[in-house]
């Protein structure tokens, strides 16, 4: 019988010590506090603190990637663009990708004046945060690859809106001869 008494006593003690979470001591917003010397329960933000998800919200998008754009970067950007972007935007960026033809929301053409005039960082931000029907690709596409895609989009835009004057003089003659034949 002593074993049952100890078990019963243990159960009583265990349940008597329970404190529900809603009964825990806490401060209401802006309630006075005796714990801190200034008498406030709410603490001021530490200088330089950035709210989660708000880093660079006030900064304008960058004009260029934070690294030198080389042929290798553009090749990587094209590869990643073809994988992640062309299903909606198509290979030349007109917004007529395969999933659009099957009913998905049509994205804007990357060749609209407003997008050709937007800084390269705009495309990086859209890939990072999503925009409209486009989800964020931050998880699927690493930061450097998002910048490479943005650089490739710039090259793609220029390729669709290039003038003969944009071609180096030593190559221009070849194009003029081929175009005239």
List its salient traits.
elongated; 7 helices; 181 residues; Cytochrome Bc1 Complex, Chain D, domain 2; 46% helix; mainly alpha
Summarize the structure.
The protein has 181 residues and is an all-alpha fold. The chain has seven helices and no strands.
Structure description:
With 181 residues, the chain is mainly α. The protein has a domain at 71-159: Cytochrome c-like domain (Cytochrome Bc1 Complex, Chain D, domain 2), CATH 1.10.760. It is 46% helix and 0% strand. It contains 7 helices and no strands. It has helices at residues 2-16, 71-89, 98-101, 113-117, 120-129, 143-160, 169-180. Helix 2 crosses helix 6 (143-160) and helix 5 (120-129) packs across helix 6. The longest helix has 19 residues, at 71-89.
Structural topology:
Elements: H1 2-16, H2 71-89, H3 98-101, H4 113-117, H5 120-129, H6 143-160, H7 169-180
Helix pairs in contact: 2-6, 5-6
The CATH homologous superfamily of the domain at 71-159 is named: Cytochrome c-like domain
Rg over alpha carbons: 30 Å
- Give the class from helix and strand content and strand pairing: mainly alpha
Report the total helices: 7
The name of the CATH architecture of the domain at 71-159 is Orthogonal Bundle
Number of strands: 0
Q: What fraction strand?
A: under 5%
Sketch the major β-sheet. Answer: none
Average of the residue pLDDT scores: 84
Please mark out the parts with pLDDT under 50 across 5 or more consecutive residues, or reply none: none
Question: Percent range for helical residues?
Answer: 40-55%
| CATH hierarchy class name of the domain at 71-159 | Mainly Alpha
Shape, per Cα inertia axes: elongated
């Amino acid at each position: 019988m002593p074993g049952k008494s100890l078990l019963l006593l243990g159960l009583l003690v265990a349940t008597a010590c329970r404190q529900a979470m809603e009964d825990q001591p806490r401060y209401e917003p802006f309630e006075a506090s005796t714990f801190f010397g200034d008498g406030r329960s709410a603490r001021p933000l530490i200088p330089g603190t950035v709210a989660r998800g708000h880093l660079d919200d006030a900064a304008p998008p960058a004009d260029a990637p934070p690294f030198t754009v080389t042929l290798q970067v553009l090749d990587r950007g094209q590869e990643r663009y073809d994988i992640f972007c062309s299903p909606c935007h198509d290979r030349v960026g007109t917004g007529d990708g395969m999933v659009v033809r099957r009913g998905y929301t049509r994205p804007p053409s990357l060749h609209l004046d407003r997008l050709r005039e937007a800084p390269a960082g705009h495309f990086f931000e859209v890939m990072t945060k999503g925009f409209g029907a486009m989800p964020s690709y931050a998880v699927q596409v690493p930061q450097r690859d998002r910048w490479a895609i943005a650089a490739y989009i710039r090259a793609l835009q220029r390729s669709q809106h290039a003038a003969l004057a944009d071609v180096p003089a030593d190559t221009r003659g070849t194009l003029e001869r081929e175009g005239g034949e």
